[in-house]
Specification:
The structure is a homodimer of 211-residue chains. With 211 residues, chain A is mostly helical. Helix content of chain A is 69%, strand content 0%. Chain A has two domains: 65 residues, Arc Repressor Mutant, subunit A; 144 residues, Tetracycline Repressor, domain 2 (Orthogonal Bundle), CATH 1.10.357. In chain A, helix 6 packs antiparallel against helix 11 and helix 9 runs antiparallel to helix 11. The radius of gyration of chain A is 19 Å and the shape is elongated. Chain A binds a DNA duplex (30 and 30 nucleotides) through helix 4.
Chain lengths: 211, 211
DNA sequence: CGGCGCGCTAAGCGCTTGCTCACCTTCGGG
DNA sequence: CCCGAAGGTGAGCAAGCGCTTAGCGCGCCG
């Protein structure tokens, strides 16, 4: 398994979204599950539906995953890892706090728009996870929150931002970005880039001193 | 049925949330369904669970509602009516655009926080509705959107606001408010009033000219 | 005070669910 | 050239699902 992973290029997870899921059949099943969960929700999706979308028999699912919940966990875990990676890269990057916040919101929103099927599963199907799996994911979300809070704190310290309630504003910024997954429609008028630019501008106004 | 409704005071739907659902047993079932749908989601909730929470047998549900989906529709319809009422009252009220926007966000957020179980069902279980019922609800949401957009347009016309993209900003404002239903926790540190005040302040910064 | 109708229940029907199991194919190594 | 592991299938099991139906208790009207 790790030998197969090494044959892939190291950075192709942006180009090929589920490149880290290694047996071909397991990836096909996982992609099918993402689509189905995003469309109908976890509980309304049957294992027969997932297998059918992947062009396989229902039993094939259980060769690669122990349960339907394990499939959801794999999706949620990989998605949260990606989300955290995006925000931490923005938080630890160069530039002023304003520039980093702009980049963070822009890329986080773009991810929620471009990959809104995945994001929908990642953000709205937490309750369906088992207790242990949910706890693991919640820890990742805590770190996501911390990355944004760090940018805001930096900006306040540098005098760039005027933010009376940093934790509350962190919540609002993440909230705004995450909700994109709920309403974004690929057939709609706005491209992911446009939404990212719009939202980054709005967030910067929220934190900038009013004069 | 209308005779029974007339015996209630005209304005008690704020004090007694589901006062408009008239046979006592039907209301108990609906309240139980709201709790169950909010906790587990529509598809993961069984009719036995709803009836059990209401202290009745599973069959009792079908005396008052034709199907489980009809229950969801009743909840969604009443909830959307209430949400629209809140925003239209704010939009058509007196005061400057800034004052009306402040009031709109404050009361809309407060509703999503205080009644976050109901709001969660209303905002996140649209997909489970039948096609006709979903179309009816989407029309209500269009009007909700229009109420906020009207405030923003008024503010721009009056020179109070600097909003380059009114439809996009309308989306963002509603998005911010709606997402409260996802994360709000009654055991958390913030009261609905505090969140409403915080969010109203952030939204005003989003639309106010920067100078 | 008899009986009628309404609100409710116990039991269960037909179906779908997540998941299993016996079996089949394919294919690289001795 | 056969063999065993890996990956797949068809059929089906037990459990749980939404919903129905036959019948029960009880308040109300003649």
């Amino acid at each position: 398994m790790s030998a197969a992973e090494e044959t892939a290029e190291p950075d192709d997870d942006t180009a090929k979204p589920w490149g880290e899921v290694t047996p071909e059949a397991a990836r096909k099943l996982l992609v099918a599950a993402v689509e189905a969960f995003a469309e109908r929700g976890y509980h309304a999706t049957t294992t027969r539906d997932i297998a059918g979308r992947a062009g396989m028999s229902p039993a094939a699912l259980y060769i690669h995953y122990k349960t339907k919940e394990e499939l959801l966990h794999r999706i949620s875990r990989i998605g949260h890892d990606k989300a955290l990676e995006i925000l931490q890269a923005a938080a630890e990057g160069p530039g002023t706090a304003a520039e980093r916040l702009d980049g963070a919101v822009r890329s986080f929103v773009r991810w929620h728009a471009e990959r809104h099927t995945t994001a929908r599963v990642v953000q709205y199907e937490l309750d369906a996870l088992s207790d242990e799996h949910r706890a693991e994911i919640i820890e990742l979300r805590r770190r996501t929150d911390a990355a944004v809070r760090r940018i805001l704190n930096d900006g306040v310290k540098a005098g760039e931002f005027d933010v009376p309630d940093v934790p509350g504003t962190t919540l609002a910024v993440l909230s705004l970005c995450i909700d994109v997954a709920r309403w974004f429609n690929a057939q709609g008028r706005r491209t992911p880039d446009e939404v990212g630019a719009l939202y980054a501008g709005l967030v910067l106004r929220m934190v900038t001193a009013q004069q």
